[in-house]
Amino acid sequence: MKEEEKNTLPGISGPLLAWYSGNRRSLPWRDDPSAYHVWISEIMLQQTRVEAVKGYYARFLERFPDIRALAEADEDTCLKLWEGLGYYSRARNLQKAARLLMADYGGEMPRHSGELRKLPGIGPYTAAAIASIAFGERIPAIDGNLLRVFSRLALYEEEIRKPAAAAAAEAFFLEQMPADRPGDFNQALMDLGAGICRPGSDPACGECPLRQHCRAAEEGRASGLPLMPAKKARGIEKHTVLVIRDDDRILLRRRPGRGLLAGLYEFPVESGWLSEEEAVQKAREYGCDPLRIRLLPAAKHIFTHKEWHMHGYEIRIGSFSGDAEGGAEGVAAPGGQCFTAPIRDLQEKYALPSAYSAYLPE
């Protein structure tokens, strides 16, 4: 195929938007697509399924209905509402950006994608999504869905994760994007990619409104595109989780401010898989006097580049010495300063990564 043919295509906006009008997904952030709502939803949707986000979105907006409320909240409250969504740096960047908006932008979202990209946590895709949907800027929002649709429509045969692919997709869709409905055009492509032009070997080409415009479908090659880079094997780390508690309180510690799961709370965790005897000894090193120990189920958690394979023990003690109800007494311990907290506060106050969900007390 000649290069100039790859960069031209009969207009797709008409059939695409007609399909979208009758098939658009009903999503809460589309009911009132203010810049704030689009921003919160797009950050939540990064690395997270749509169905999983809906409940988080509703709870987050109930607590933080506007930029000011988010900017004035304490970080622990923000992280607790984010608990389970993962990639907690997204929540921290939301709050950093909200505070910057209050300080430098009068509490209003900038209307242009270039200005939006100056805010923490907002990259090219999120800036384009906000600017096109909330403000009508004519700019494609290039995410995985749009890259996949582009690769099939244009029969793009280069690796799709390279910067050149994103640039080619942006130029391709910009040429097709109507001036009066750029937000709908982007959202139609998102819905098309999520529901019909699906990843893997089973795109629903027979249901696609752009079937007649798709060069990959024409040549029977849609299931082979886009061309993805080879996956790297994830590293495996072994850990032992120690749930040290009395009847009412539990031992926690806060992770360092940098690195994986930065600043979140966790149970004491030791490298490697400890025996019962070793776990009891570790509890004593934490200043605790174990009464009994119980093996907890093994668990696995997958991060982007690594896996945690975990064993766990519940270690019951009589009581923590020196604790005041509602307080957080320091406990000198290997691996960092620990504190005790009421078990009930795991529900409302302390954000624990979902990696530890198998070890939460009932």
Primary descriptors:
disordered N terminus, 8 strands, 2 domains, 362 residues, Endonuclease III, domain 1, globular, 4-stranded mixed β-sheet, alpha+beta, Nucleoside Triphosphate Pyrophosphohydrolase, 15% strand, 4-stranded antiparallel β-sheet
Task: Please give a quick description of this structure.
By secondary structure, this protein is an alpha+beta fold. Helix content is 40%, strand content 15%.
Overview of the structural elements:
The chain is of the alpha+beta class and 362 residues long. Helix content is 40%, strand content 15%. It is built from 16 helices and eight strands. It has helices at 3-6, 13-23, 28-31, 35-45, 50-63, 67-72, 75-82, 89-104, 113-116, 124-135, 144-153, 163-176, 182-195, 215-218, 276-285, 345-348; strands at residues 235-245, 249-254, 265-266, 269-271, 290-302, 306-317, 330-331, 338-342. The strands form two sheets. Strands 4-1-6-5 form a four-stranded mixed sheet. Strand 5 (290-302) and strand 6 form a beta hairpin. The N and C termini lie far apart (62 Å).
